[in-house]
């Protein structure tokens, strides 16, 4: 078997993009060619015998393929650039929805007008339109007094707060090894949500609600759960390297 054929068989079904496969193929072929050349020059082997010995030292295709597959990250360096761009887009869209949207600034105008009126009437205690520091208060209110709210309002405030942080829990561990920990995802989602609540309160773009924190963190943990499930599936598929089954992967 020629070295090129051997390398082709090794990298053919690896779970990565074409560019990454080509990079790996070039690197592996370069290393094999160097070893072959050493056997020719130092041991006096023919080119054919040197190629056979080189392949023999590297080991069977199935074993090498499995080792390479299991050592690779979930996404290769080329796909990672696109995922990183997607994460940046997610941050930008989240900032717009939570802090910069026209609806937020209309709400700000109403809030400032309300505070001015309450101060004018000497009722400073009513300047805070709504604040909730009691966990589960808002959630129980939606359940016990659901007839006072529209389905859209309930879905927007409950499912929306969860869904908004799902990409955070999914993309962070996918991009950064240091975030492949449920504790880091938990505290990142918590502090990110706290930051949003603080900015909304500071600029009168919203009101503080501790239940929003709970739902945001829950969304981050749901995203992390999706990451762990996807990672388990990918590594299970990679463990089948050397069989006739193709790989399935995030890339």
UniProtKB/TrEMBL annotation:
The chain crosses the membrane at residues 82-100, 154-178, 185-207, 213-235. It comes from the Bacteria. Residues 89-228 form the VanZ-like domain. It holds the Pfam family VanZ. The keyword Metal-binding does not apply. The keyword Transmembrane applies. This is VanZ-like domain-containing protein. The lineage of its organism: Bacteria, Bacillati, Bacillota, Bacilli, Bacillales.
